[in-house]
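Researcher: Structure prediction, please.
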Amino acid sequence: MAGIAVLGFACTPPPKAATYVASQESWCPEGFEQGPDDACFALPEQRGDKTAVLIYLHHAYSGAGPSGEWDIVKKATEKGFAVVLVRGRRALCDLPGNPPGAEFCWPHDPDDTITMKQMAGSWDKTIWQADALLEQGPHKHYVLGYGAGGNFVGTLATQGFLEASGYAVIGTGASMPTPAAGRKPPLVILMASDSDEAGAQARSTSDALEKATWPHARCPHAQKTLAKEDLDVVLKTFSRERAGDLAGFLASTTKNTPCDPPGGPVTAPKKK
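Model: Predicted structure follows.
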């Protein structure tokens, strides 16, 4: 019979000793609550069975992070989305390819699938908590990433390390890995400038998605930072998917026609 070994024998309670438990300092921006495993969340005032959860991956940053970026993402709650903020890891900033001086970064080695899976899995508790607080679930999940966070979102979309109904990549070309075998195509939104290297890469990625018959949009991103207009395009497109109206929203336009804010047209995949 298996048993549990107990070290020490005491018939009376041991003497009380002074103990100190350091509280975990919250990094959560104003308006967000601390969740499990270093994640934060914010809920919309009006919510119900159609409320969706937006999971946001930031650009690589240092210090307290870009307050303007947090403020823009928080506006998703005004559009009826719950928002979960997840944070990169310090150790990953030592890898080549990250911005100088960054303190919180994302994995970008396509061969390091273990780190990617573990990182995505560590957000489950906070996402579950947001779902539970919203009640009347289950609720649809969508993922948005900006800059370096967008690169990781591209991998999450194609490999399925974090399941969602749609993924948006802003401010980067996001050369996505080949979709995993049997991966059901989710909606993908690409937003990058047409005038730089990221734009050229976004066009190439859009061509690859079209060839794979994945529903997707390629939209302009003219700002140097995440902009409210970017968020509006993403949320409008996600809302159409959430309402089951994505097929009607997909416009049969010329290949790679960019979106016109606030949200259309969208490149439709060719039928095989």
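Model: Confidence is low (pLDDT under 50) at residues 1-23, 252-258, 260-272.
Researcher: Thanks, that helps.
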